[in-house]
Amino acid sequence: MANLISSPNQIIKRFALNGWTFLVMAIALIIATPILFVFSSIFTNSGDIWQHLASTVLKDYITNSLWLMLLVGAGVCLIGVGTAWLVTMCRFWGSRWLEWGLLLPLAAPAYLLAYAYTNMLDYFGPVQSTLRSIFGWGSVDDYWFPNYRTIEASRSLGCNPWRSFFTIALPLARPSIVAGLALALMETLNDLGTVEYFGINTFTTGIYRTWLGLGERAAAAQLAACLMIFILLLILLERRSRSAAQYYERSSSIKRLTPFELKSWRSLLALAACLIPVILGFIIPAGYLLQLTLNNLDSVFDGEFVDLAQHSFILAGITAIAAMTISLFMAYGQRLESNWFMKTAVRIAGMGYAIPGSVIAVGVLIPVAGLDNAIDRWMQATFNISTGLLLSGTVASLIFAYLVRFLAVAFGSVESSLNKISPNLDDASRSLGYGSTSTLWKVHTPLMTGGLITSAMLVFVDVMKELPATLVIRPFNFDTLGIRVYQYASDERLAEAAAPALAIVLVGIIPVILLSWRITRSR
């Protein structure tokens, strides 16, 4: 009799778990749709346009993209790994401040740095103007200026800081270094504003020009598919680096390591090495944008600036809330039933973060346009009414592209917060008669407030800085701060672009503060 009574409860519980599985699988399928459409475009006949691209510019796209990846990767490894070692394992004057100061360049998107430095170093910029006033130079005929447009165990064995770095710390940190390098290279391939501003042909600029300039959807999708191959190779490289070797702490508790004390000239060299990326990557461009903004206060903070800020905040706010909610459902569904299907669905839903915004834009517009055309044909055949484009070029399409691109950012924070909650609370909640949904809302969500807010903030900032997807999908007369900065800078009007650019930089400081706080807490 007991088995007969408990059997319906088991069926209901199993149905609830399957419901969560179905929800996560449905989310993953919807989020992966743009990426799948881009992949399927490889087999699409694009006519003569692909042969034209292959014989003219495709070689430049591949060559320039590879050179950018190579040079950026070398710079990231040299500067990032070197400064990280100095502020983590060495102590010198200012090292504690530089631990978070080195994160400040993250707040400034690459295209803003390109615009600021180009304007500063131009003929009428402050650098050349100052040089001419000091040395009395009259024109470019009087001087030449470059054209800017074109650990503990090792120490006990007697290792010095350099030997400890190369023999112990560097091999141990290899997985993290490769992961960070892969992220930097993905951002390099995603960039549009910088490379187009400097006239460098890459896959991202090619996709943008082929879609909007030539109007060739199939060829643009095939270029996007080629770019995805680059990204997949980076992902495989990162995965390979993590699976090749595993490193573990021998002790159950982690203590802060005793740092190397740097004195005299070594301290000065370490300070200079860490200050250079902070000054060049944040202080100088942010200060220059601030100066331009203050010099044009009467013209920059007008009604247009308010509208641009409003559009940006609306898009970022809606996307952040949606990403946080969807991530909560996905993380909780994985907690309830962590099977192979669930893990696969979560991986599929999160792979959009590795895909450039231009690729996702193409992948969103193709199925959305197809759906619009199908609805229009059906309405004409049934009611003799033309609906036109219902979804293409709308805010809804743009928000969907943002979700595809940044859902993984929100999911990481939400999953981390949920994993910190003991499973005993789930059992206690069930014993009190709460179902899985009630347990999520009444038990888990209040305990995850900090993680949920963090996930929303990270997505909010990423949306504020995103340029390629916004540039392609945005509705007419619905510009954002990033779009206006791009347009003004393209027209050599950086003074007007300074205020929107500075607003993006200030918003970008939020995740820097959160990241710095988390690093400090982890130590």
Properties at a glance:
2 strands, globular, 1% strand, MetI-like fold, 523 residues, disordered N terminus, 24 helices
Task: Describe the fold and architecture.
By secondary structure, this protein is mainly α. The chain is 77% helix and 1% strand. The chain has 24 helices and two strands. The protein has helices at residues 2-40, 48-56, 58-89, 95-101, 110-121, 126-135, 152-156, 161-172, 174-190, 193-197, 203-213, 217-244, 264-295, 297-300, 303-336, 340-350, 357-383, 395-419, 423-431, 436-447, 449-465, 468-473, 481-490, 494-522, and strands spanning 90-91, 260-261. The chain has a two-stranded parallel sheet with strand order 1-2. The N and C termini lie far apart (56 Å).
Structural class: mainly alpha
Number of helices: 24
What is the rounded Rg?
Answer: 26 Å
Which word captures the global form? globular
List how many beta strands DSSP finds: 2
Give the uncertain stretches in residue-range form: 1-6, 244-255
